[in-house]
Design goal:
By secondary structure, the chain is α+β, with helices and mostly antiparallel strands. The chain has six helices and 14 strands. The protein is globular, with a radius of gyration of 23 Å. It binds benzoic acid (BEZ) and fe (iii) ion (FE). Its cofactor is Fe(3+).
Length: 298
């Protein structure tokens, strides 16, 4: 028998989903159908609006290539990526045994679309941005566990745009990696390298997600930051950034990735001797940041 009650329709769909054998898939789909139907009723969605949404998602898929992931950009600009990152970090960490003084692990943030696997392995202290536009910056610090013990041999996989906010992957015909490297901490858990002080930059705005962001009346920018994946056996890997304090857009990152604990004051220096003994002919910056990794759940 047919009913004209929209709630009856929701119940009928949920009954069909209720037979899903996989319990997690059943939960995900039950909640999705419930919330989707609620949304449609709440905003009194018209057929034209629903078709516009379908066309938008179709265009989002059609914009994806092997170098561009418009769905991730959609997830990022709706804050969904950050929600998932925050939940995952909390879930993966084992609780610290009683009596052990612990500081929380470094906060994670979005990976973004410009990670490129297989960055060159470099020595500690190297310049990983040779020939890249931008003001030189010396990055250094330590990696410890959440109890403050130094972690040796931790892998840091690092990437950033140049000093004008452009990533190597965005430049047509640029097939070589720039401003990327993998380093390992020394026996005291220390790391150090030279790169550039990163600039703010806009996310790609020439696709459907750009049109959506523009529709919000929102700027498209991310504040200056450098990306890190920090990983060590027995610990929860972190994908995170260091953000440049006072960078434009630090209060309004288009992908909601900023955490106060990740903001670093870059110190300006006149030409002269750098902390690693290098003689710098040009002004340069230093940035110090310590990473903390939580023990992984067994
Ligand atoms: C990035 O930081 O590389 C990024 C993150 C999310 C969207 C676009 C870019
Ligand atoms: Fe970035």
């Amino acid at each position: 028998m047919q009913h004209s009650d929209p709630l009856h329709l929701t119940r009928t769909v949920l009954e069909r989903v209720a037979n899903t054998p996989d319990p997690r898939f059943r939960l995900l789909m039950t909640t999705l159908v419930t919330k989707l139907h609620e949304f449609i009723r709440e905003v009194d969605l018209t057929p034209e609006e629903w078709m516009a949404a379908i066309e938008f998602l179709t265009a989002t898929g059609q914009t994806c290539t092997d170098k561009r992931q418009e769905f991730i950009l959609l997830s990022d600009t709706l804050g969904a990526s950050m929600q998932v990152v925050m939940l995952a970090q909390a879930r993966a960490s084992a609780s610290v045994p009683e009596g052990v003084a612990a500081t929380p692990a470094t906060e994670a943030t979005v990976q973004g679309p410009y990670y490129w696997e297989g960055a060159p392995e470099r020595e500690l202290g190297s310049n990983i941005a040779e020939g890249v536009r931008g003001e030189p910056a010396y990055y250094h610090g330590r990696v410890t566990d959440t109890a403050g013990r130094p972690l040796a041999g931790v892998l840091l996989d690092i990437w950033s745009g140049d000093g004008e906010g452009v990533y190597d992957m965005q430049v047509a015909g640029q097939n070589e990696m720039l401003a990327r490297a993998r380093l390992r901490t020394d026996a005291q858990g220390r790391y150090a390298f030279w790169s550039i002080r990163p600039s703010y930059y806009p996310i790609p705005m020439d696709g459907p997600v750009g049109r959506m962001v523009q529709g919000f009346g929102q700027h498209p920018n991310r504040p200056g930051h450098i990306h890190f994946k920090v990983s060590a056996p027995g610990h929860v890997d972190i994908t995170t950034h260091i953000f440049v304090a006072n960078s434009p857009y630090i209060e309004s990152d288009v992908v909601f990735g900023v955490r106060d604990s990740l903001i670093v004051e870059f110190q300006p220096h006149a030409p002269g001797r750098a902390p690693d003994g290098r003689e710098m002919k040009a002004p340069f910056w230093t940035a110090e940041y310590d990473f903390r990794l939580a023990p992984a759940r067994a």
